[in-house]
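Re: the request from the purification team.
They wanted to know what the chain is likely to look like in 3D before they choose a buffer screen. I agreed to run a prediction and write the result into the notebook, where they can find it.
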Amino acid sequence: MTSRGAVLAGRILAELQELSTLVERAEQGWTKARESQDDFFIDGVALNLHGFYSGLERILERIASAVDETVPGGANWHQELLSQMAIEIPGVRPAVISTSLKEELEVYRGFRHIVRNVYTYHLRQEKIAPLVERLPEVFASAEREITAFAGFLQNVR
């Protein structure tokens, strides 16, 4: 799997770069929202938080498809994907993410669902605040753990 692993690792690392930009944009929008009390900035922050989780989920889906050769289905597939990525599959791969990161990402997964299913003017700063405040730390953990997994992919023979 060396060349396939290297290609997948490259895609993962490129996606992480994109996520870094989303994190920065969410933080910048949050600062402007708090300074101006303009709800339109909240909309932008919500969209970037949505994009952050969606991008992470794309990475995890690619891993599930290419490495595990099975992507969860059904109504709860988003939750099942996180659970699948937090376990080691003996003889196939180590856990992609830690259990603690999985729990942190569950909150962003839930928020992504809200953004998709409510009108943006219903979003409130007090609900978004903890997500934005934790975002740099959550992203740093995700980047570290997923980059380590990309290293595993590059070394698989």
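For the purification team: The first helix runs from residue 2 to 36.
Please add any questions underneath this entry.
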